[in-house]
Amino acid sequence: MASMLKKNSMAFGDIAEKDKAIVEETAEALSSNLANIGKQGGRLNKYRKQAWGTTGMTWLAVLVVVCVFFILVLFMRIAPKRY
Questions:
Q1: Average pLDDT value for the chain
Q2: How many CA atoms lie within 13 A of 56 on its CB side?
């Protein structure tokens, strides 16, 4: 029984060492991924700013068109008709 207990504790120790190596390897991979995510986040933020500038210009163009439309309608109401 003592030999079985010793054998089991040795197997558990080997498994614990393997798990520790896997955890360290995973931690290194996560650190690398975190650095890559930081780079990609910066690039995405830059793209978002460019996209918002384009969206803002689009809304400005729509606002100008709507204003010109209302000015035209007011002009047609105010200007006398010539037949």
A1: 89
A2: 6
